[in-house]
Amino acid sequence: MADHPLRYEVNCSILFTELPLLERPAAVRAAGFGAVEFWWPFPAAVPSDREAEDFVRAVTDAGVRLVGLNFFAGDMAGGDRGLVSWPDRSAEFRDNIEATVGIGERLGCRAFNALYGNRVDGADPAAQDALATENLALAGRAAARIGGTVLVEPVSGAPRYPLLTAADAVGVIDRAERETGVGNLGFLCDLYHLATNGDDLDQVTATYGDRVAHVQIADAPGRNEPGTGTLDLARHLAALAAAGYDGWVGLEYKPSGASVDSFAWLPRERRA
User: Fold this and answer.
1) N or C, which end of the chain has less CB nearby within 10 Å?
2) All domains of the chain, ordered by start, with CATH?
3) For 117-128, what is the mean pLDDT?
4) What is the pLDDT of residue 20?
5) Which one-letter DSSP state was computed for residue 146?
6) At 4, is the pLDDT very low, low, confident or very high (cuts 50, 70, 90)?
C-alpha cells in the first residue's frame, strides 16, 4: 500500500480470535503494532471488577495502547448491533456508559463506538431515533469528562440497522448536537461497510472528510485483509489524510488465514 501518514492499529475482536481474548494484545505487540481496539469485551453491559481488572492488565502488560472501545452492543454474534435506539434495552446501555468510559479513562482510550441498534418490531422508528438522540447525548457528556469522543457508525450486513451511509451517520450526529448541544460525537468511517452499502468513497471523503473521527478498514468484497478485494484502500486513506484526518486506522478485517500471516501487506516498519 502506498505511503500516507496514518497509523495502523489492530481490532482484537476480529483478529487473533484463535487466541483467548486476554492474550490478543500481546500477540498484536509481537506482530509489531503499538495500539489496539476492541468491541465490548465482556458478556454483559457491566463487567465484574475482576473482569475489568483482567482486561486492563492484559492491555497494559502487553505494552500497547487502547485507542478504540465499543459500548456494549448486545449479542453481536446473534445479530444485535447496539442498544442506543433499542427501547427495551436502553437502561442497559445507560448502565454501560460509565463502565465503558471508566475503562477508557484507565487505559487512555478516547474513542468510544456507540452502535446505533437495529429497528425493532413494535417500536416506532421515530421514537427509536429520539431515544438514540437522548442516549448519544448521555454518552457524549460522559466521554467529554475525559476528553473523549462518541462514534456513530454506518454498518453493513445487518438488514435492520438503519445507518447505512456516511450521510446517515452524520445526520444522526447533527441531530444530536442540534437538539442536545452535545458536540463531541464523531463519524466512524469504516471503508468496508460504506463500500459494501454502495456509498461512493471518493464522495464520502470530499463531503465528510472533515467530520471523520475514526477510520476502520477491510477489503471488499469479503471483509478480509487489504489486497484480497477490489478497494484501493491506500488511495482512500491518502485522501482522508489530505482532508485532515490524522488519527488511527483500525484493521477490522477477518484474516483469510492465520491472523499473524494477514499482515504481509504491511511492512513491519509501518506497523509501530
Assistant:
1) C
2) 7-270 (3.20.20.150)
3) 98
4) 98
5) T
6) confident
Which residue is listed with cell 460522559? 142
Kindly report the number of other CB atoms within 10 A of residue 240's CB atom: 24
SS3 12: coil
- What percentage of the chain exceeds 90 in pLDDT? 98
pTM, two decimals, is 0.98
Cβ atoms of 38 and 13 closer than 8 Å: yes
SS3 state at 38: strand
Which helix (H) or strand (E) covers residue 40, if one does? none
Rounded CA gap, 272 and 9, in Å? 9
Alpha helix segments (H runs only) across the chain: 24-30, 49-62, 90-107, 125-144, 166-180, 191-196, 201-208, 233-242
Residues classed as catalytic: 153, 252
Angle formed by the axes of helices 90-107 and 125-144, nearest 10°? 30
Residue in the block written with cell 500516507: 4
Which DSSP letter does residue 246 get? -
**Phi and psi torsions of 49, nearest 5°:** -60, -40
Mean pLDDT to the nearest integer, 47-67:
98
Burial of 250 (0-12, 13-18, 19+ CB in 10 A): buried
pLDDT of residue 221: 98
